Every structure is written in C-alpha cells, then in structure tokens.
Amino acid sequence: MKLKRILSAVLSVSMLSAVALTGCGSSDSSASGSRSAEAKTADGSTAEGESKTDAPAPSGDAKPITVWAPEEISALTQEKIDAWLPTSDWAGQYTVTVSAMGEGDAATQMLTDVEAGADIFGFAQDQLARLVAAGALSAPGGIFLDDVNNNNDTGSIGAATLDGKVYAYPETSDNGFFLFYDKSVVSDPSTLDGILEQCDAAGKKFYMDLQSGWYNVAFFFATGAQCYYNYDTEGNVTDAVCDYNSDAGLAALKAQVALASNKAFSQSTGADAALFDPNGGTAGAIVSGTWDSAKVKEYLGDNYGASKLPTFNVDGKDYQMSGFGGFKLVGVKPQTDSDKLTFCHALADFITSEEMQMARFEANGWGPSNLNAQKSDAVQADPALAALAAQLAFCPAQGQYPNAYWTVTEAFGTDINSGKYAKSSDDDLKAALADLEKEIKDAK
After folding, report:
1. For the chain, what is the domain count?
2. Which of 89, 209, 324, 402 could form a disulfide with 55 if both were Cys (CB 3.0 to 4.6 A apart)?
3. Does residue 271 lie in a domain region?
4. pLDDT over 90, % of the chain
C-alpha cells in the first residue's frame, strides 16, 4: 500500500475543530534516512506503516506552506528549512515561506481568522485553550505524538496538553523571566532593595514592567496570593480563582507601590536589552527573559550577569519574587488536504527537533524543551538558562488567562506606576484590591 492511500484512509480534517491527525511520513530530527511507523486511525486502530521512501512523487506545482516565527528567529528558521526540505521525501512537492510574526500576534491572528492564518505557527502556551476552541490546531498523533512525548520535558508536554490531549509541539522551556544585571553596577543581586541602592549609587536604573499582569504576579505569587482560571475544551472559563483582597495581596501591592516610588526604578517593556548598550544605556539591572540574553551578553561582555529574581521585604518579612513558568509551542493548522496536513506535521516536528532547538539556543539563547538538548554542556553552562532554572523553582506553570485579565491587570499596574497609590493607607489599598479581585473574576 502506498503512503498516499494510507494517509487517505487514516487522516480526517476539519477546519472547524481541532482533531488529532496523523500519518506515516515523519522526518528524523536529523532530516535524513527512513523511518517506519504505525499510523493510528481516529478510533485508535492501527494501519500498517511504511517507510518514508514510499512518499508520493511530486506532481504539478509545489504547494506553498506558510510558517510564522518570531522576527529574531525567522531567518534562521527559513535557512534550516531550506536545507532540510530538499533532503526530505517532500522535496519538490512544497515550498515553505517563513514570515516574521511574534507568538502573541500569531495567536491573535489565528483566533481572528483561522483559515487566513499560517499553516504552522509559534505561540505561548497560555493561548492553547483559545486556539483549541477556535479549531486552529490539528493535534499530533502517531509517530509525531511519540516524538512529543519521548523527546521533551514533562512541563512542556503538560503545557501542550488540554483535557488530557496533546495539541501542539513543545519548542522551548524558557518562557519565563529572571534578572539580567551589569556586574560593574550590581555586585549582589540577592535583594531588591540592594539592587535599587547599587543602581542609584552608579547613576543607573532597575527596569521592570509593572504595567503587565504577566510580570506583576512576581509580587502577588511571592506573598502567597493566587490568581488563575479553569477552562473547558470549548474555550469557556468554568471558574476564576483570585484572592488578591487578602493580607498576601496587600503585602504584594505595598511592595509594588514602594518600587514604583523608588527613584532608581524605571518602567520597562520586558524586552529592553538595548538599555545595557554602553553607548548611552541606563540600565544596571533588568527583569526580562532569554529573548534578551544574546543582546545583553553582547552589550555587557565580561560584566554580563544573570540570576534568579531577588527577594523583597514588606513590613519586616522577606519574600522571594515569583512569576510565571512558561513555554513556547508550535501549532499546525487543520488542512483539507491530507497529504499537506502530514507534511505540515512533519515540518512542525522538524522545527521543534533537537537540531532546531540547539540552533535557536546557539543563535538566540532560547532554552530547549528537548531532553537531549537540555543535557548538552553548552546549555547547562549558559548563565541565562541557569538563572531561569533557578527562578522556575519559585514559579507556578502559567495556565490559560482570558484577554480581559490582561486588560484589567495592565490598567491596575499603570495606576501603580503612575503613583496613584503612593500615599494610600492600608485600608485604601485593600479597597483597591477588592475592586481588582472582582474585575479579575469577572474577566471571562
């Protein structure tokens, strides 16, 4: 039986719902050689698998495939795909174009119009439930699902899973934030007060994005406050849990108010590596993530420092700053052409392979989810990834949050940063937290 006939028998596609779709014909992570596998039908039965070399010969014009990748890795992704495709069993059948599109924008575009979206796209794991509900994801199955489950760490697999089913391919285990610092300015990054004092003494600034519900949980979660949502597979919020109107929430808010009032603090976007530029840079320390690591290292050279986030003190009690533990994923859009769908899964499998994860690490400092890549000497010796690993010990995994949550928390963070609460009493702060908690719970 030829591969094409097998695929026709075992693959079904819907543009309206995310369905597990698979077939024979995956590529090895090394993009060479053959591989046999079993293709599973939707009811779990098994169809006989064949070697990749049984792939159908090219016929007619090559079909176009679009991949969305963040700008900083788009050229690398195109280069690697261009090298892989001619060696694969799909040579001549498809052309692949990589377009620059950040994970957040990609998810928004897919949710707006799935059919007009890219065939393959990167996204942050907090968008998984929405993308599943929108029918924007074709779930990996067969050998592709085996690659996900066998080659990646538990956290990233969990991030790609909703209601017990894997819907995407893990790409990184590094979508969290930690501290970058200039060693010539900050010699001891262990406490927030100490960092602020050292930055002030050097005429530098400590940068953090207080106006974001992604970053300011570093304070709320540190004091023991909770905020999360539960979803069903239809993308509906079934429950909202938030206890910011509490002693824990009050301690977190007081810490943020104090930080916003400190003369050594400055608001950032969370992606400000250029602030370390020796030609006019004003940063002594920045809260950011691995997306900034390559540039920060370039700017600081021997003064490049990275560590977990510091502790902060409120009313005589120390708290370890927390945050979200996050992951980046790669999704495949459902297709009406079963052969094209299988190619898209094979391409997504390659894009998230050990080879590609190591290439992104070497070029941009992205932290691998691939187990073999994580064991490499270079990854284990990387200061940014070591700092992130230390920080993640204090961070819960990021779940799904509705869009309204980000709007509500951004508005509240903007008020903090503007000085609105600088002279507020504890009672006034609790009243503000009560309003915030209600808005968060209503943000569905």
Report:
1. 2
2. 89
3. yes
4. 76
